[in-house]
Amino acid sequence: MKARVIININFLVLFIFLILSCADEDNFKTDISDLESFTLNKNSIWNGSDGSGSFADGNVIYLNNYYPDWDSYSGFIYSNIINDFMFNDSSKYSSYPSGGANESKVYAVAHQFERIVITFKDSIKGEEPQYVMLANTTYTALAIKYGYGSAKKFGGNSGDDPDWFKVSIIGYPTWGGVSGPVDFFLADFRNDDNSKDYITKSWNYVDLSSLGNVKKIEFQIFSSVVGTPLYFCLDNLKGRIQN
User: Fold this and answer.
1) Each residue of 156-177: pLDDT tens digit?
2) In 10 A of CB 216, how many CB atoms?
3) Rounded Cα distance, 192 and 185, in Å
4) Which is nearest to 60 in space by CA: 85, 42, 39, 78?
5) How many percent of the chain have pLDDT more than 90?
6) What is the rounded CA–CA span in Å between residue 210 and residue 119?
7) What is the Cα–Cα distance from 23 to 40, expressed in whole angstroms?
8) CB of 139 within 8 A of CB of 83?
9) Residue 17: in which H helix or E strand, if any?
10) In sequence order, what are the residues at sequence separation of 6 or more whose Cβ sits closer than 8 angstroms to the Cβ of residue 133?
11) Strand, helix or coil at 66?
């Protein structure tokens, strides 16, 4: 009899959990910004030269500062360029894995000169980010690997230098304050075993659920090596929006 009561209680707890989970999901809708709504000519970019200052996909607004004197930008652009081996201008706007996440065509490319920021269409409700996918640009990856341009080769001549390159992600909750950071290393040579040093050549899931419900997200790029090109690629930002 006692065993039967315990089993019944377990079923009751599971039933209540399922009801509460369904009720919670009914209060939210999912938003995925995969950038596939944008159309580009083959191997081209949108870099903000139209002066619009941003582009939007789903509930997400990607901020852009374009500098006409240098034909350059800070913040986000979007691209479909394929180049995973040549260190040239196009490699600044190319993902090192070749193409977007999950073999998609279009992806965002971030460059840090000023702040790199994402906001949302409804700034009062904000969004509860779940995850984002990040990758290296070919330009940064090759500079790290070979020491092109003003960047030192990571690891140095001996391979023992504990160099690293990371993106730090900060949330600005709707209630105020700051959440995070969530750090993700796109290259890491700090391990004592040099065979474990890496420059990531894939798209990587980064869990953002710890940021909570936010009105904006800021991305900051850091490197142990002065002169490392401050770029990264972004795709498939998934979040929940309260109904």
Assistant:
1) 999 999 999 999 999 999 999 9
2) 19
3) 17
4) 78
5) 84
6) 17
7) 41
8) no
9) helix 2-26
10) 101, 203, 204, 205, 206, 234, 235, 236, 237
11) strand
Look at phi and psi of residue 205 and say left if phi exceeds 0, alpha if psi is from -120 to 50, else beta. beta
Token pair belonging to 115: 């702040």
| Single-letter amino acid, residue 18 | L
Q: Give the C-alpha separation, 88 to 139, whole Å.
A: 7
Give the chain's length: 243
Tokens of 9: 């209680």
CA distance 82 to 93: 9
Sign of the alpha-carbon torsion through 56, 62, 63, 68: negative
CA–CA distance from 111 to each of 79, 161, 214, 231 (Å)? Answer: 13, 25, 22, 5
Give residue 242's pLDDT: 85
Residue ranges of domains in the chain, CATH in brackets: 30-242 (2.60.120.1350)
